[in-house]
Amino acid sequence: MTVHATDLSLVPTDQLQPLDTIEGFQVRPGFFNTFGATIIPGGVNFTIQSHGATSCELLLFHRMAEEPFAALRFPENYKIGFVYSMIVFGLDIEEFEYAYRLDGPYDEQKGLRFDKTKILLDPYARAVTGQSRWGVTNCCEHGYRARVVRNNFDWGLEKQPQIPMEDLIIYETHVRGFTKDTSSGVCCPGTFLGLNDKIPYLKELGINAVELMPVFEFDEMRDVRVVDDHLLIDYWGYNSVCFFAPNTSYASSIEYNREGRELKELIKALHDNGIDVILDVVFNHTAEGNELGPSFCFKGFDNNIYYMLTPDGYYYNFSGCGNTLNCNHPVVQQLILDCLRYWVTDYRVDGFRFDLASILGRNEDGSPMNQPPLLRSLAFDPILGTVKLIAEAWDAGGLYQVGSFPSWRRWAEWNGKYRDDMRRFLKGDGGLAEAAAQRMLGSPDLYDPASRGLSASVNFITCHDGFTLNDLYSYNEKHNEANGWNNTDGSNDNNSWNCGVEGETDNPEVLALRLKMMRNACAVLMCSRGTPMFLAGDEFGDTRFGNNNPYCQDNEISWLDWSLLETNQELFGFFRYMIAFRKKHRVIRKDLDAGSFGFPNTSIHGLTPWTPDTSPESRTVCVMFAGFDAENQKEDVVYVAVNPYWRTLELILPELPEGIRWHIAVNTGDPAHTTFPEGQMPMADGSVLLGGRSVIVFVAE
User: Fold this and answer.
1) What are 369-414's pLDDT values in tens digits?
2) Are 47 and 36 within 8 A, CB to CB?
3) C-alpha closest to that of 675 among 695, 651, 645
4) What angle do CA 593, 595, 598 make, to 5 degrees?
5) 495/504 Cα distance (integer angstroms)
6) Residues 110-130: what's their mean pLDDT?
7) Pairing, β 79-80 against β 112-113
8) Which CA distances in Å does 663 have to 62, 606, 658?
9) How confident is the model at residue 141 (pLDDT cuts 50, 70, 90)?
10) Angle, alpha carbons 327-332-338 (nearest 5°)
C-alpha cells in the first residue's frame, strides 16, 4: 500500500514501511506536526522548519566525531509548506548525534544569513552534545549537535504541590553555586544531585518554592576570559544555547540519551516534600549574539524571523546581550509555547520566571504592544493553566513595566519598586513612609486588587542581581574589580549601608547592627502582602565580598559558604521563625472574612494608631492585618511596627476588645530575645518603646 505524507498520521507507527533510500538509509516522509527528533518503532522522526531555506540536510555523527558519517538531503516531497520531515529507519539512538545544514540566500541587509557550510543545532533539540563537562570549551563555530532522548521517566503517582501564589515563599538559587563549595558536604557538589541532598535543609528552613537560575543548556565557556590569573566564564547562564535541553553539566554523571533524568529526579523529590519548582527562563535573547557572533542555530534557520532586526539588517539589542528574540512573530511564539508546554508536561515544572520579560511584549520593530499576543497566549494556554507566570517587568532597552505589565490576572511581577523603596526605607532614608506602607500591603498603588488580585507582587529585597543581604549592610559601594571591567559593571544604585565600616570587620557593635538590619529586612519581607522571595544564603549571611554582579565568578565569590550556617545560627533561626510565622498567619497573605474586632483587612498607622504620618520627616510605619481565620476558627490580627530611625520612639498600640491583649512575637531591638514561641510571647501594654532601627511584630491573643 502506498501511503502519502499527508496520510501518515493515520497509520500505526509499527506498520510504517520505508519508501526511499538515501545515502544507504531507508527513509520515508515523517510526522510533519512533531518538531524535533522523536523515537518511533523502527526509527527516528526528524522534523524542522525554515521559511527561507532552499534545501536541508540531516547530518549524522558518531559520538564526538568531527565529521558526519552521513548527510541525508531531504527530497522535495519530504517538505510541506516550510516544514521538512523524514523518518530514518534502523538508527540506534545511542550510536549517533545529529545536526542540520541549510542552504538559501545570504543578504545581511535583508536579514538573510543562510550558509550551507554551517552546522546547525535543532531548535527543538532535547539534549545538546559536548556540554556535559563543565568548563570544557566546545567551539560553537564548529556547531553544536543534538542527541535523541528517551522520554521514559516514571513519574508514578507524583502529584505537584499546587501551592497558591500568595502562599509561596520563594528561594532563588543557582544549581552549581548552591553546593559547589566543599563546605556544602554533599556527595556531588555543584549538581542537581547535590541540590537534592539539601532538601532536608530546605524543609527545615521552611521555604516551599525554589526558583532555579537558568538550567537550559548554555555554554559557560562562550565568553571565557582570564583576569588576574582567574578564569572568568558565563557562570550564571543567561545565554541560552537551546531552550528545550537541560544543562547536562549540572548532572552528576553522563546521561547519554536520557538527558534530564537527574533534574526530573530532583523535581520529583522536591514535589514529594511539598516544594514547588520555578525555572528562570531566558527567551529574550540567545547565545548567538549580534552580527559578530556565531551562527549555530536560529541565524541559520531563519535569522530574519527569530531576531528583531533594524531596517538595514542589524540586531536590536533590548537585552543588552547582543540580540533580541522576535518573540511576537508567530513562529517564535509557537516555539516558546511548545517549549514551556514541554517543561510542564515532561518535567512537571510548577512555574516560570521570565528574564527581561518586557521584551516578550515588544513588536517586531521593537515598539511596546498593548496586548502582546505571546503574553496573552501563555496566560490562557490550557496546559499552562495552573502554572505560575512571573515577569521581570523591565528590559535593557529602557522599558519599565512594574505595575503595568500585561497580566490578564495571570501574570505576577518581580516588584522592583518593593526592593528599591524598602531598601531605602530600612536604611533610614526620609520621605518613604507612605511608599513603604504601600509596599507592605501588597503595593495596591501599583496593582489594583480588583483587576490584578492579591498575587501580582513578588516582593524581594535581594536576588541574584545585586548585593546579598549581608553585603547590603556591609558595603556602601560595589566592589566588582574581579570582574575585569574596572568596576564599571553592575548597578551603582544599591541603596545599601555599611553600618559604619566598609566590608569585613571585627567590630562587635558594627556586627550587631548588621545582624539587626538583616533581621529587620527578613521580618518586613515575611510580613508583607504579596509573594516573598529571597536569595539562597541570605538566611545565614552569605557574602560575595561586595561584588554585586558576579555573573562570571565560578569560585568562592559566588559559591555558598556553608560554614557560615554554623557561624550565623542566630540569623538562620530568625529566618526559620519568620517563615513559620508567615505560614501560620494567613491574614498576612490574603483578605479573610471580617472579624468581630471591627478592624479592616489592612490598615496603615503611625506612632499613634489610625493616624499614619507620611510627612517627609517620618521614618516610622505600622501596618495591621486583621480578619477571621475560618480555617482555624479564630481572630487573626498582626500588627507590624517598623522604625528605621536611629532613636527609640514611643509607640501607642490600637485598642483591642476586652479580654484581648497585644503580645510580642518579634522584637529585633531586644538583643536577648528577638523571637518568642507561641505561648511564651510577652504581653504589651497600651504603649511600648520601639527601639531605634528595629521592628516589632505584635499579635492579638
Assistant:
1) 999 999 999 999 999 999 999 999 999 999 999 999 999 999 999 9
2) yes
3) 695
4) 125
5) 19
6) 96
7) unpaired
8) 70, 19, 15
9) low
10) 115
Q: What percent of the chain has pLDDT over 90?
A: 92
> Does residue 395 have an active-site annotation?
no
Q: What is the residue extent of each domain of the chain?
A: 5-104, 194-207+415-584, 592-700
Q: Is 423 helix (H, G, I), strand (E, B) or coil?
A: helix
CATH topology of domain 5-104: Immunoglobulin-like (2.60.40)
Which residue shows C-alpha cell 544549581? 175
How open is the CA angle 247-249-255, to the nearest 5 degrees? 85
Query: How far is residue 480's CA from residue 57's CA, in Å, rounded to a whole number?
Result: 46
Phi-psi region of 442 (alpha: psi -120 to 50; beta: other; left: phi over 0): left
3-state secondary structure of 242: strand
Nearest to 134 by CA among 181, 59, 191, 183: 191
In order of 395, 447, 529, 654, 698, the CA distances from 593 in angstroms are 39, 21, 16, 20, 20
88 pairs with which residues across the strands?
27, 44
Rounded distance, CA 618 to CA 585, Å?
28
Averaged over 497-510, what is the pLDDT?
Answer: 98
Catalytic option among 276, 355, 538, 636: 355
Selected from 2.60.40.1180, 3.10.150.10, 3.40.30.10, 3.40.50.2300, the CATH number assigned to the domain covering 592-700 reads 2.60.40.1180
| pLDDT band at 11; cut points 50, 70, 90 | low
Is 355 assigned a catalytic role? yes
Residue 13: its pLDDT value, please? 61
- Where is average pLDDT lowest: 141-145, 155-159, 247-251, 551-555? 141-145
Q: Exposure string (b/e) for 486-520, b if CB count within 10 Å is 16 or more? A: ebeebeeebbbbbbebeeeeeeeebeebbbbbbbb
Cα-based distances in Å from 414 to 102, 339, 442, 602: 40, 22, 12, 22
Question: Residue 446 gets which letter from DSSP?
Answer: T
CA distances from 214 to 188, 235, 351, 604, 675 (A): 19, 10, 13, 39, 36
Residues 392 and 402: their CA atoms lie apart, in Å, by 8
The helix or strand, by DSSP H or E, that contains position 218, with its residue range, turns out to be strand 216-218
Amino acid at the residue 2: T
How much is the mean pLDDT over the chain?
A: 95
Query: For the chain, how many residues are written?
Result: 701
Helix (H) or strand (E) holding 303: helix 298-306
Task: Look at the pTM and tell me if it is higher than 0.85.
Answer: yes
d(CA 572, CA 539): 5
- Give domain 194-207+415-584's CATH superfamily: Glycosidases (3.20.20.80)
Taking Cα atoms as reference points, which of 570, 526, 584, 596 lies closest to residue 670?
570
Using the 8-state DSSP alphabet, how is residue 5 labeled? Answer: G
DSSP label at residue 650? E
> Which of 288, 392, 542, 554 is labelled catalytic?
392
